[in-house]
Amino acid sequence: MDEALQYESADDESMLYREVIDEEGDVLLRSGIREFLVSSKVLALASSYFDTMFRSEFSEGCAMRNSAVPLSIKLSDDDPEALAVLLHTIHFSRKRRYLELQLDTQFNIAVLSDKYDCVRALYSDSQRWLMSASAAKHCISSLWKLTAVAYLMYHPVLFAKQTSQLVQVLRADDLDGALQSVRVTLLDRMISDVERTMNDLRKDSRRFNIQQKACINCGKLKPLPTKKCHKCDEIEFYALYCDPGSRICGEKIVQPNSYPE
Fold first, then answer.
1. Going edge to edge, which strands form the sheet with 221-223?
2. Spatial separation of the C-alpha atoms in residues 153 and 249, rounded to whole Å
3. Contact 126, 107 (CB under 8 A)
4. What does R_g of the chain's alpha carbons equal in angstroms?
5. Secondary-structure breakdown of the chain: helix, strand, coil percentages, each rounded to the nearest 5
6. 3-state DSSP call for residue 117?
7. Could you give the CA distance from residue 148 to residue 154 in angstroms, rounded to a whole number?
8. Are strands 71-74 and 221-223 parallel, antiparallel or unpaired?
9. 23-60 burial, b if ≥16 CB within 10 A, otherwise e?
10. Cα gap 220→223, rounded to integer Å
């Protein structure tokens, strides 16, 4: 990131570190002892939250248009490092390409992206960060965080990958770790969304046919044109649908009780 500039705060006697992300910026976002000079136009384009804030009918918008100095906004609850990465990313800072983010930072960025409704603006970068993190081996608490990041940043393929790994390694007593790794309200949201999707799939599973079928005897997955299972010589197969009854976990599948013909 750009070298920080130290200066005396006008509000108190503490020392702040200013990071100039946009040299022509008109907004100062403060988190902790760090302050970021950014563009209100970029913020408004990337985030519906800031777009609403800067409209003329709100005090921040009026203050910004009637002042010759950048508008200062305190974001006391936000993680400074995550906020810095988020702002550099939506401003297309060249240095964002060289960021190697720890999982905790990715999680905090995902929380802020959800809070300020700017997930789309970080979609490509967050996918790259998450794919890099997913390549390593993780403990269960880290898997919970990876799952939460994939959920908040709308990466369905990576979300499926992480939940599949959790299903394979999760034990009942590991649920306490979920509450420590991700926030209770976030976990509730994930569960509610998954349950709602499952209910939708149950209503019309025909729309979610998977382009594979499974041997009725050994469960081996085969492409749709296959007429015979070479593993056990079985010729009968059953269709797979993207619903809980046909969930695939590694090479093991559970045969559903019944499916529509």
1. 221-223, 209-215, 237-241
2. 23
3. no
4. 24
5. 50, 15, 35
6. coil
7. 10
8. unpaired
9. eebbbbbbbbebbbbbbbbbbbebbeebbebbeeeeeb
10. 10
**Where are any strands of DSSP class E within the chain?**
5-8, 15-20, 27-31, 34-38, 71-74, 209-215, 221-223, 237-241, 248-249, 252-253
Regarding predicted confidence, which is higher, 205 or 42? Answer: 42
pLDDT (tens digit, 9 = 90+) per residue, 145-192?
899 999 999 988 888 888 878 777 766 555 555 555 566 678 788 878
Show the DSSP H helices in 91-183 as ranges. 103-115, 123-134, 140-152, 156-169, 175-181
Nearest to 33 by CA among 73, 3, 76: 76
Tokens of 2: 């750009």
> What's the pLDDT score for residue 259?
34
Sequence-distant (≥ 6) Cβ neighbours of residue 49 within 8 angstroms: 115, 116, 117, 118
Between 151 and 246, name the one with better pLDDT.
151
Nearest to 11 by CA among 38, 35, 27, 40: 35
- Provide the CA 228 distance to its chain's centre, in angstroms: 41
Helices 103-115 and 80-90, axial angle in degrees (round to 10): 70
